[in-house]
């Protein structure tokens, strides 16, 4: 006995009862709580809201929307099994299904994997019944079976009976005679005879041996689908030969179809051209030392932190404006990409990542602009490894997909950075699955992207809504997200040289388990067949259905940060000053040094070493920020490993002498200076005319512009004015002062209802069981006729007198037993409930309602009747 036959024995019947179930609801009633919980985990949409009983659960499981969603979450082989069942007789024997999957020659890998696929379909309530009566849910059959205008995924056409419905008796006689079959005037008998011919291997082969070679060529073009072909009013001889013998049956005046039974004979009984019981292997395309991978990833992680800091420093005084339709304009994205010295798609990724991490947001002002949030200052105070962990966690869980930027939405509108319509609920699952596949490889191994995409397509074939969902560019969105994931993981430092780093494994919670499991898989050669496929399918289902909790994700982020910390270079406390007014930072700088130097000088180039250049404007910026010239000299002398060049000292002193000599304040604006000659020079300069200046006193000029414009105008003329307050004090401006009000990071958009936790599942199962018990309850001591007032059949409200009702609920409260009641609420709606009375007083009964899974209080006068349960819950 083969593996498939042994597994088949374990699934002869569904449930423990001797009577086979007649409906899906009956099949669900035979399941235990663990099986029902597995169904609700796999299809969480069935819990929204919680069904009142198992009949409602079965009805909801058979709705079109729910079935489509369940089919889209099947792997390729399980889906192929469902497609084969859709073209099999209903109900189907397991042997018939196995024949459709393996064909006449058989295939051990398919035979071994088939029981697991059938079990998955049965567990997800897409299939019910024992192996002697396999029934695909009707909605699934309608979606997968061939119908007019809806070809089957298998490429098979309708059966002989379906294709010949309504055929005239005369035409039947012609077909039977040409095929060498006894003629009959009964269409049913005629169809059965032709079907019997097509399904008889020997007789069908003998018939095809007499076919012209051209006719066989016609069949070859139709056999794997689509099975339909067009014919003219006067078809060719080969087509006439096939049509006369029923091998091509008319579906309209100009269309013929190859019947399913004939196609299966030509396919040697196989429903699919290429069944895929085993998932494509993800193998290493390149291997590196784990240390090299970790160092490369750590270097890129540090670059990620620097890029985010540089981005938000560039937006410190208020970033780009928010477009009316939301998001960043193309012009502002180009300017940001230029400032970061990055390609626009890469710059868009960093902007979106900062937004997903809650580090930037719109400020909410009337002229709305993007700026850093207060959370950015908290983030800057963290250690580098902790800052990276926060970015990586935000990226892993974000549904906003930066790769879509530049495409179009369903209405043809451009998708912009930070704009709407960038959420794709599948993104977190795809990212995590891609990284899980990398984690299964040995440490330091990098796969080819094509292998990763092939595996993902096997685990989740493109179907229905997934194929037509707007994704800003067409094609398989999941595959595109996977490619973006590989690129973004490298940018972020989760991977190095295409291989998953140690801190990347820890971020997933995989640790070193991935490499150990991969090694075990290689050593375990016996798993090469369908046993491995079944295990992979189970693991894929778990990966797709179960996401780590917040606590688990936080613990993984901490472990990742601990592993990354030793790989990040220690920040330096010095720079190298040079005579050409530049400073070279040979590595990352400590935060106070980097902040002060960023104000005092402009970044000229980045790379392994950062080059800063000192200019009059940059020195004036430092003076505006409140630094005195003496402070700047002391700062440079303390943090330079080389002597402070004389040109730099002269530059600072020269700018400082001029700085603040002029004072600008608000009148609407004024200029104040003790040197009236300088004010005369300003008035004589033609460039001051737009400022609307006039002398109020020998040392004061009034202006018609605001102070900010006046400051910029005087600086453009070569002066170094300083702003002052109403008290005459110099105003200190800091470039990092502007922040948005407190903002929360954007919440990911979930892909359908979330997977229920154990608490919700337990409560839902109790409510469903209680409701099912109420709808199918069998009462004790039910009288044989209706005259006694009790319900005779399930579903009817019990009827008892007020005294009987009171006595029964009081007894149940004393014994702690459950009873079945009929209840009519204030709106007149009647319902059945299973309750466990706790207290009876004042005309009310307080009880635990098993149907609602909560304690409720019921007026006794609204209870129509009460009956004891044969089996209390």
Describe, in plain words, how this protein is organized in 3D:
The protein has 873 residues and is an alpha+beta fold. The chain has five domains: 3-144, no CATH class; 160-266, no CATH class; 284-567, no CATH class; 663-723; 777-868, SH3 type barrels (Roll), CATH 2.30.30. A hairpin with a 2-residue loop joins strand 10 (495-496) and strand 11. The chain is elongated, with a radius of gyration of 38 Å.
Search tags:
873 residues; alpha+beta; 5 domains; five-stranded antiparallel β-sheet; 37 helices; 25 strands; 11% strand; disordered N terminus
- Discrete helix count: 37
Stretches with pLDDT under 50, minimum 5 residues:
1-13, 464-474, 511-546, 778-795
Whole-number tally of structural domains: 5
Which percent range describes the beta-strand content? Answer: 5-15%
Q: Tally the beta strands.
A: 25
Largest sheet report? 5 strands, mixed
The residue fraction in helices comes out at: 40-55%
Mean pLDDT: 84
Instruction: Give the N-to-C terminal Cα separation.
Output: 43 Å
Structural class: alpha+beta
Strand order of the largest sheet: 18-19-17-16-20
Shape descriptor reads elongated
Radius of gyration: 38 Å
Summarize the SSE layout with pairings.
Blueprint: H1 3-9, H2 24-29, H3 33-42, H4 54-61, H5 64-72, H6 76-86, H7 94-102, H8 108-123, E1 127-128, E2 135-136, H9 138-144, H10 160-163, H11 169-178, H12 187-199, H13 201-209, H14 213-222, E3 228-230, H15 237-244, E4 249-250, E5 255-257, H16 260-266, E6 284-287, H17 290-314, H18 330-340, H19 344-356, E7 360-362, E8 370-372, H20 374-380, H21 384-397, H22 427-439, E9 445-447, H23 449-459, H24 464-468, H25 477-492, E10 495-496, E11 499-500, H26 502-508, H27 513-523, H28 530-545, H29 550-564, E12 576-578, E13 582-585, H30 591-600, E14 602-605, E15 610-613, H31 616-624, H32 629-639, H33 646-658, E16 663-665, E17 669-672, H34 676-684, E18 694-697, E19 700-703, H35 707-716, E20 722-723, H36 758-776, H37 802-815, E21 819-824, E22 830-841, E23 844-849, E24 854-859, E25 863-868
